[in-house]
Task: structure prediction
Amino acid sequence: MSSINGTYVNANAGAKLTITDGNDANGTFSGTFSQGGVNYDVSYGHYHFQNSTGQPTTITFVGLNGNSGFQAWSLFSPDHNYAKVRAAGSRTNFDGEVVTLAGEFVKQ
Result:
């Protein structure tokens, strides 16, 4: 089991990311994401260690809600503990709303 697995909360963006099935060998994960009362399935989740084995780690994911739209985020962790992960993302809704979001995800 990868140490990236877990639940992360971003109080600034009102968001929660739950990572499951992290695979350190190929850098993929699945999970769920919620923000602003909308739930998204993580349709693409990927992370990469510097030089393939070291620290830090860069992370990206795309969340999809068939009725609402997409969210896409890029994150940074200085280590493999993932206690606090810096992040920036955006939300695009079917109503044309495009919003940028940021803040720190804290592992619960």
